[in-house]
Write a structure and sequence with these properties.
single chain; alpha/beta; Maf protein; five-stranded mixed beta sheet; 6 helices; 5 strands; 45% helix; 21% strand
Length: 169
């Protein structure tokens, strides 16, 4: 199965899970640059369950649009568990969505360090009434592969979070 097919399958499952619960999602993206939003909105009828997405590629955008404290970014780095969780929480606070997903990472080919090499990606999910949870992804490959793997993992984590919540219907 190709990555595109995997993403399409995950979006179909995500759409069904959100629709079954009468809930919506929003995305806060950095290194994926809108790929999550694009995958969701490529599906007809997505306006029923995809609320919004923002690309906060710069640190200033993370602070201005999502409320991530500049001091947190300075202390922990934009690519960190804490910033990913703050991005997910910030999107939840700034939208009516029930669930959010946030991605921040180093897609490469430059920007990596020994402590945070290329392919280091933090993905966080949040939901109304629940604490944000973050997961580290160490993705191999070129820039496109890191970004695609990040989207797949983001959908997997968000889907698991949604499916763990009982249906409101």
């Amino acid at each position: 199965m190709s990555t595109a097919e995997a993403i399409d399958g995950l979006v179909a499952r995500l759409a069904a899970a959100l629709a079954a619960r009468g809930t919506t999602m929003a995305a806060a993206e950095s290194c994926t640059g809108g790929l999550i939003a694009a995958a969701c909105t490529s599906r007809a009828g997505s306006s029923a369950w995809f609320e919004r997405g923002v690309v906060t590629y710069s640190n200033a955008a993370k602070t201005e649009l999502l409320g991530v404290p500049a001091a947190l970014i300075a202390d922990r780095g934009a690519v960190s568990e804490e910033v990913a969780r703050a991005m997910a929480d910030g999107m939840l606070a700034r939208s009516p969505a029930t669930f959010t997903v946030a991605v921040t990472g180093i897609a490469g080919p430059d920007g990596g360090t020994p402590a945070k090499p290329v392919g280091t990606v933090w993905i966080a999910t949040a939901s109304r009434g629940g604490a944000a949870e973050a997961t580290l992804l160490n993705a191999a490959g070129d820039r496109a592969a890191v970004r695609e793997r990040s989207v797949v993992r983001a959908f997997e984590l968000l889907l698991a979070r949604i499916e763990a919540k009982p249906s409101a219907r």
